[in-house]
Design goal:
146 residues; mainly alpha; elongated
């Protein structure tokens, strides 16, 4: 394994760990904590996901640079590209819709929040892209280690 491949593998697994911990563990659990209202959970989520997405963008750039410096097997490149494209779709296409929805919920009077509100379609699209991104990162990481 070359130095660039080791860096790429490290970046992939750090990125994967962050996504799994935040998107699939912290995000759903925060709404189950005592006293956390929908508005409070959404406010926390906005901050957490803004930070996560900024770190993800930096990791994606680092990954692309490492793959350009010393291209690994095609499987690793394609899987990494899938992850990067999923992140770009989340940030460019889905997050704006989620941000609009979150602003609406946070602006609503507290007594109206949660009464009959469903998750937006954008939320389900974001989660679907997140699952594909996780698969891409996992495959890329395994391929880089092989």
């Amino acid at each position: 394994m070359t130095g660039a491949h080791a860096v790429a593998a490290a970046v992939v697994f750090v990125w994967l760990g962050m996504v799994l911990a935040i998107s699939f563990l912290e995000a759903p659990l925060k709404f189950r904590a005592p006293g956390v209202t929908l508005q409070l959970g959404l406010g926390i989520g906005r901050l957490v996901f803004r930070a996560l997405n900024a770190v993800e963008a930096a990791l994606a750039i680092a990954l692309v640079v490492a793959l350009i410096v010393d291209p690994p097997a095609a499987t690793a490149v394609i899987a990494a590209a899938v992850a990067v494209v999923m992140l770009a779709a989340q940030l460019g296409l889905v997050r704006p819709a989620l941000n609009r929805r979150t602003r609406q919920v946070l602006a609503a009077p507290p007594e109206q929040v949660g009464s009959g509100q469903r998750r937006s379609r954008a939320h389900y699209v974001y989660v679907a892209l997140e699952v594909v991104k996780v698969i891409g990162l996992l495959v890329a990481g395994i391929a880089l280690l092989a």
